[in-house]
Amino acid sequence: MSNNSIDASIYENLTSELRRGLSMLAVLSQCEELQYGYSLKQRLGEAGLDVSEGTLYPLLRRLEGQGLLESRWEVVDDQRPRRYYQLSATGRATLAQLLDEWKNLVASLERLGIAKE
User: Which of 38, 61, 63, 112 has its CA 20 to 30 A from that of 23?
Assistant: First the structure.
């Protein structure tokens, strides 16, 4: 390994930290419409943000516990019951604030010459 390359496990840990916060923001943004876990996982994956079920479902429960999401069980087309999630009023307000914070962070990175479109 050269002096300029980072150890693979360190890189994996760093990217995992970065993705964790982004996953939370992405999940909240997609729950403006009623979503169940699998449809949400697919939607995120199609956008290039692969989130494992082992990450997604605990995140959904945590966001609900924080009052940012509401959930309810529904049976659609005689299929097994699915738990659907949607932003609560608190979740909508929080998402708006988080998106503002995200924009400010991106602007700061751009001023540092790190994130340029």
Answer: 112
Residue 84's DSSP bridge partners are 36, 72
The model carries a pTM of 0.85
The verdict on residue 3 lying in a domain is no
Q: What is the total count of domains within the chain?
A: 1
Query: Three-state secondary structure along 50-77?
Result: CCCHHHHHHHHHHHHHCCCEEEEEECCC
Neighbours of 12 (CB within 10 A): 11
Its domain, for residue 37, covers: 8-111
Q: Is the dihedral of CA 58, 74, 84, 68 positive or negative?
A: negative
